[in-house]
Design brief:
401 residues; alpha/beta; 7-stranded mixed sheet; 4-stranded antiparallel sheet; binds pyridoxal-5'-phosphate
């Protein structure tokens, strides 16, 4: 009988969204006529841009012609035409990348979770609290020790390092899911200093960078001096271009990023990750990469911006509601998430039940993202415009009573 990795038994049994789904299903069973509005799961609702559809069709057609058919991709790290488009995109933020520093993948979640394969299980990991649950889960699966950096009202939900505590890996996410907060260049500089002092590596999740509207907020950690020797960046087209069902993202590992092995030799993180991926990943489908490259064209940027602007207006509608009701919140400006304080000092699950039962609106209880999320609540701006307006009307009526 094979033994199992018993670390899996220590994971939370019920994933946040499964708990939510259970409660919602029970509610709908009791109230089959309820007009439910879902503002919980952070999934996009608008279709992918026409230019991406065309590019994907063209890519699919090429696959059906002997001369242009493509089998396994040589490197499995993405076609050069896509990597070049990504490198050009970074250039506008003053970040120069060579193509071998970019690795195309099937979304940020895979790499954020899988990257831990190349680090020792005895290493200490910093995760901000609250945070997306998969940073914690993928490290707990290997039995790693996790320490939490507190994001809270006092620091605007942008956790900063405690220099008296050592860690080896650090997960940062900006713009943040769930809190919608962002790190400034100065704050990232502090994290970079911390990483250098501890010879740690920052895993920087920039999945929501396309939602940044304030000009001085960095889109990439590599905009900050010194990051190339201590950071890996994960990005995704899921929210940028509605690719949640297409599956395409990219990871940037600078060639300068190295660690020292126990025998004193210098090891390139890029090479180590390449070795891991070479054994466990065979790349992203060609038609999807064609669609992804279309995102970075001038027309592609224009088309995806239209969808992003739609979500940003939804975010503004939610933010205005919070302003009107005098509710404290973060996010909305550089992020599709609004993270607000539950009224009347309710716990986040109490408020979840209240919203579900009184106004049939589903959100995400902050507690699902960590203990600092208790008393806070996340709404997403990825929904339909009319439903967002309707939900906010119901929300106002509920709280004015
Ligand atoms: N990173 C963050 C912060 C996210 O919120 C999500 C998805 O919601 C992901 C990564 C996963 O993105 P992908 O669809 O590229 O796997």
């Amino acid at each position: 009988m094979p033994t199992i990795n018993e670390n899996f038994l220590k994971l939370e049994k019920n994933y946040l969204f499964i708990n939510i789904a259970k409660k919602v299903n029970a509610f709908l069973k009791e109230n089959p006529d309820a007009k439910l509005i879902r503002m919980g799961i952070g999934d996009v609702t608008l279709p992918i841009a026409p230019i991406c559809v065309e590019a994907m069709k063209k890519g699919a057609e090429e696959m059906g012609i002997k001369e242009t058919f493509k089998g396994y991709e040589d490197s499995g790290t993405g076609y050069d035409f896509l990597k070049q488009a990504i490198a050009d995109y970074y250039q506008q933020y003053g970040v120069t990348l060579s193509l071998d520093e970019i690795r195309v993948n099937d979304g940020a979640k895979s790499d954020c979770g899988n990257i831990v394969d190349i680090f020792g299980n005895d290493k200490i990991v910093i995760v901000t609290d609250p945070a997306n649950p998969f940073y914690v889960d993928s490290n707990k699966m290997n039995g790693r020790t996790i320490i939490y950096a507190n994001s809270n009202e006092e620091n605007g939900f942008a956790a900063m390092p405690d220099f008296s505590v050592h860690a080896d890996l650090i997960y940062l996410c900006s713009p943040n899911n769930p809190t919608g907060s962002v790190y400034t260049k100065e704050q990232l500089k502090v994290w970079i200093n911390y990483a250098k002092q501890n010879q740690a590596i920052i895993i920087y999740d920039a999945a929501y960078e396309a939602f940044i509207t304030q000009p001085d907020i960095p889109h990439s950690i590599f905009e900050i001096e010194g990051a190339k020797t201590c950071a890996i960046e994960m990005c995704s087209l899921s929210k940028t271009a509605g690719f949640t069902g297409m599956r395409c993202g990219y990871t940037v590992i600078p060639n300068e990023l190295t660690v020292t092995a126990s025998d004193g030799t210098t090891v390139s993180i890029s090479q180590l990750w390449g070795r891991r991926q070479g054994s466990k990943f065979n790349g992203v489908s060609y038609p999807v990469q064609c669609a992804a490259a279309a995102v970075f064209t001038k027309e592609g940027r224009k088309q995806i911006q239209k969808n992003i602007a739609y979500y940003q207006e939804n975010a503004a509608i939610i933010s205005r509601t919070m302003d009107e009701l005098g509710i404290k919140y973060t996010g909305g400006i550089n992020s599709p998430y609004i993270w607000f304080q539950c009224p009347n000092q309710m716990s986040s699950w109490e408020f979840f039940d209240e919203m579900l039962h009184k106004i049939a609106v589903v959100g995400t209880p902050g507690e699902g993202f960590g203990k600092n999320g208790d008393g806070w609540f996340r709404l997403t701006a990825f929904g339909d415009r009319d439903l967002t307006i309707e939900a906010m009307e119901r929300f106002k009526n509920m709280l004015k009573k």
